[in-house]
Specification:
One of its GO terms (cellular component) is plasma membrane. The protein is an alpha+beta fold. The chain contains eight helices and 21 strands.
């Protein structure tokens, strides 16, 4: 198999879309009964979003991770066909939709009259968008070329459409719009994965754009790096690190966030610290917290005074901890996590993570939001695009606990995609995306994928047969 035949299994204007808009809004359910697929059914027969998966996560204990990964050191994993044992039962397009779990932060920003205050909540949203990755060590299925995913959440006030727009390299484009015309949120992501012996590093290439329409503001940023440790030996754990710069292109305000690496003794694990500055580069607020827990805002002078006092009182304790620290073994031991962010007096809470369901660990560490993303609610099959990843048989089989069927279907889809590519090459035909087209981000000038519009008109007759 040559490189062109490899299956890469890793991973704007507002259109009116006057459509026969289909809503999958759920009514509040009381005294509901759990069905076999995890959905809830109330006494009046109204379906609610499911709170669990149809089957628990399978065991990976009998699989030799090292036997496979030892051939991949230093390589980009997007160019390698990965065993299904590494996966979780979601497509990467569905993972992208998890950015919207804390949409209320955008709605809050839209209500504020001061641009610096709006930036606080945009920054909190940017941090919250990666919070679902905490302990999510399973790899999402990489989308097939032309695969789509839609998510309509009237309770959260948005609808989203995403599409896999490129196969070499794998690029996913998404577009979200507020149902009351307050904002649009869009971008394209090219995740590069590399294996470094004991860890897998994900570099999130691509720009994310949030437009607050009533304020005529546009914010852009790029997500931090992500690293999964101990893929060979020891307990898997995740850290996010790197600098994220959020730019308000309308006012010149910036928020610079530092996702801190773990460090030698783990004191910085999960911490995020940064500041908001106006166009004159004057610090207006300090932002601090953990991407796994919460984020606060505070006056810079109060923050600096608190940190100076903390360093003075904590120097002796730090010295003692270093003396007691044990020498690490072959695994990158996860440092002891301080679960609670110490709130500095005078701080304002911007965001706090939603607790995960008690059975999350048996369900791929999914959040409640993630648990519902692949659900086919009654009547949904007839209105979804045929390319929607809820129709993918390999993901559906894995979700149902049938790993053998999932593996067979995954191989079938890979071969079908390769055959389609060979046929296009033979006929000298180019692939044409249905819902996005290449263009330039008007705010950054960088290459981007622009939503063409029309998806929610639901004219799907010309969609490709990819499953």
């Amino acid at each position: 198999m040559n490189s062109e035949e490899e299956f890469y299994d890793a991973e704007t204007g507002l259109d009116s879309d006057d459509s026969c808009e289909v809503s999958f809004k759920d009514a509040t359910v009381y005294d509901g009964k759990q069905t076999s697929n995890g959905s809830t059914l109330s006494q009046n027969g109204v379906w609610g979003r499911r709170t669990t998966l149809p089957a628990p996560m399978f065991s990976r204990n009998n699989f030799s991770v090292w036997g496979f990964l030892k051939k991949c050191i230093g390589m980009e994993l997007s160019k390698i066909t990965m065993p299904i044992v590494f996966n979780e039962p979601l497509s990467f397009l569905q993972r992208i939709s998890e950015y919207m779990e804390h949409t209320y932060l955008i709605h809050k920003a839209c209500t504020l009259s001061d641009s610096i205050e709006r930036m606080q909540f945009v920054a909190a949203f940017a941090v919250s968008a990666v919070a679902s990755q905490w302990d999510r060590t399973g790899k999402p299925f990489n989308p097939l070329l032309g695969e789509t995913y839609e998510l309509v959440r009237e309770d959260e006030g948005f609808r989203l459409i995403s599409e896999q727009v490129s196969h070499h390299p794998p690029i996913s484009a998404f577009y979200t719009e507020s149902l009351n015309q307050d904002f649009v949120f869009h971008g394209s992501i090219y995740p590069k994965l590399k294996f470094w012996g004991k860890s897998v590093e994900a570099e999130p290439k691509g720009t994310i754009t949030l437009e607050l329409l009533k304020h005529r503001e546009a914010y852009t940023w790029t997500n931090p790096h992500c690293c999964i440790h101990n893929v060979i030996l020891g307990k898997l754990w995740i850290e996010q690190y790197g600098t994220v710069e959020i730019v308000n292109h309308s006012t010149g305000d910036k928020c610079i966030l530092n996702f801190k690496p773990c460090g030698m003794f783990g004191k910085e694990l999960h911490k995020v610290e940064g500041h908001i500055q106006d166009k004159s580069k004057k610090k207006r607020h300090v932002i601090y917290g953990k991407w796994t827990e919460c984020m606060y805002a505070i006056d810079p002078k109060v923050y600096d005074s608190s940190r100076k006092a903390e360093k003075k009182s904590g120097s002796d304790a730090k010295k003692h901890k270093q003396e007691q620290s044990a020498v690490s073994d072959d695994s990158d031991e996860m440092p002891e996590v301080q679960e609670t962010v110490a709130m500095i007096p005078g701080s304002s809470l911007l965001w706090r993570i939603v607790p995960r369901p008690p059975h999350s660990e048996q369900m791929y560490n999914f959040t409640s939001f993630a648990m519902s993303l692949n659900e086919l609610e009654p009547g949904m099959e007839t209105v979804l695009a045929p390319t929607d990843c809820r129709h993918r048989p390999d993901i559906r089989a894995m979700e149902n606990g049938d790993i053998d069927k999932a593996s067979i279907e995954k191989e079938r889809l890979e071969e079908k995609q390769r055959a389609a590519r060979r046929e296009r090459a033979r006929d000298e035909e180019d692939w044409s995306n249905r819902w996005f087209h290449p263009g330039t981000n008007p705010h950054t000038g960088s290459q981007d994928w622009i939503y063409t519009g029309g998806y929610f008109d639901r004219k799907f007759s010309d969609c490709p047969d990819i499953y």
